[in-house]
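pinging the channel bc i need a second pair of eyes. not urgent but kinda urgent?? the chain im working w is below, pasted from the shared doc
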Amino acid sequence: MKALSLTTLALAFAAGTAMPAMAQDDAGSTSRLEPYVGVLGGLHDFDNDQYNGSPPSGYRGWLLEGVAGLNYNLGPVVIGAEGSVAKGIDKDIDWEYGAAGRLGLRAGKDSMFFAKVGYQWTKFDSSAFPPVSGDRHYNGTTYGIGTELSLADMGGSADRSNIRLRAQVDTRGNFHSYRPMVGVVAKF
C-alpha cells in the first residue's frame, strides 16, 4: 500500500508539472483568485485516552487525500476555503470528509505559511469497531497549520509556479488526534 501511495503522489506531481500555469494576473496586481487541487498522503492517529464522544482508544489509519480549494491573495495575506476527501488505505479509517477556511501569509516569491480551521467527518472501517458499537462515525472541529513551498522559491527563476509542495499537521478537539500530511498542490 505504501508503494501505491508513493506512486500516486509521483504521478500527481508529474501531471501537475506538465500543466501550464493558468493564473489570471494583471501586470502589477497582487490581488487575485487562485483555485487549486492537490493530492496528499499521511497518517491520522487518534489519542490513546478515551474521552467523551471519541472513537475507541488507539485508532489510526493511513490516508490518501484529495483537496480542492480557492484562495484570494491580498498582497502578503491569503484567505481561502477548501474541501477534502480522504480514503483510508490501511488500518482503521474507511473515509474522511472535511471543509475548512484558511488564512495564510506569503513567504518568498510564491510560498506561504497557513493556519486552517474547519469541520471533519470520519467513518471507521467496519472491522475496526466491536460488534456491540453500531456507530462507526466520528466528527468534530479540526484545525491545523502548514506550509506550501513553491517551486519558484526552490531555485526556479520564475516569480511564481503553479506547483507547490505541501506539508501540514491537523488535530481534532483538544489535541485528541494527530494528522500529518504531505503532498503536491497545483494552482491555476
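so The beta strands are 31-46, 60-74, 77-91, 93-107, 111-124, 137-150, 163-172, 177-187. and The longest helix spans residues 2-18. — does that match what u expected or am i reading it wrong
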